[in-house]
């Protein structure tokens, strides 16, 4: 029997994951989706050939349920789902902040729950999905979760106590890089470059730097030193970054993201 997977609350991250699963070879007929709006359901059916169903039908018919609603909507979704989820279903939550105990308290005794923090580069198979087992999830449940998330990037298992930090670094991480690219493109405009050229130069610098970080085996400090010529241009820029406290700003920013993830733990943060 083929295993069916349902994505419940198919918004931005749910759709990114769905598209990745289809690229990885999952049969659309084995994928169920739920949405709040009928037009959205139709859009997903047309684009991916998947079957829109109600939350209750998803719970009854899918072996694995991936919950991708906002943390603030999770309690309502669970109230609706709980009476329909047999305790042999694997429930995977992609919500920031919410601990596996939140789900376990609302689902039938013994239901296996796995918490995953993916990120949007799953759209281009370069995601990072950080995975933690709840108290009833076994090795087989973790392997099943990895089968779903591995084709769209890397996976990493961590104890659940590290999930808020992982969310700050990895779940939110792509946004920091987009923010930097946006700011540096503006700097290009300030220096008189046309916007499209400034964008292309910074994006290619980001891609080149990312590939070197991943593939060279060198520490980021070594890579930066190789760019930083004595009395040259780079060190003039680095001095300004230090003067403006960019390193301290990043430490504070990621700490704030970690704290926000903790606040979302109750589902109504
Ligand atoms: N966007 C991102 O980069 C990431 C998001 N997440 C997590 O994924 C979750 C969703 O985030 P986004 O995709 O950004 O939000 P979103 O708002 O795009 O998606 C949530 C979707 O759930 C639907 N929904 C809400 N209640 C529902 C219900 N009872 N039944 C069916 N559908 C329902 C909404 O209509 C919406 O389409 C959040 O918990 C977030 O913490 C995790 C990692 C990365
Ligand atoms: O901003 C958020 O809350 C979600 C979780 C991680 C990335 N996006």
TrEMBL record:
Q: In which pathway does it act?
A: Amino-acid biosynthesis; L-proline biosynthesis; L-proline from L-glutamate 5-semialdehyde: step 1/1
Q: Which reaction does it catalyse?
A: L-proline + NAD(+) = (S)-1-pyrroline-5-carboxylate + NADH + 2 H(+); L-proline + NADP(+) = (S)-1-pyrroline-5-carboxylate + NADPH + 2 H(+)
Provide the E.C. number(s) assigned to this enzyme. 1.5.1.2
SUPFAM superfamilies named among the record's database cross-references: 6-phosphogluconate dehydrogenase C-terminal domain-like, NAD(P)-binding Rossmann-fold domains
Name the Gene3D superfamilies on file.
Answer: NAD(P)-binding Rossmann-like Domain, ProC C-terminal domain-like
Q: Which residues form the Pyrroline-5-carboxylate reductase dimerisation domain?
A: 160-264
Q: Which UniProt keywords are present, listed alphabetically? A: Amino-acid biosynthesis, Cytoplasm, NADP, Oxidoreductase, Proline biosynthesis
Q: Which family does it belong to?
A: Belongs to the pyrroline-5-carboxylate reductase family.
HAMAP family, A to Z: P5C_reductase
Q: What is this protein called?
A: Pyrroline-5-carboxylate reductase
Organism for this UniProt entry? Streptomyces humicola
Upper taxonomic lineage:
Bacteria, Bacillati, Actinomycetota, Actinomycetes, Kitasatosporales
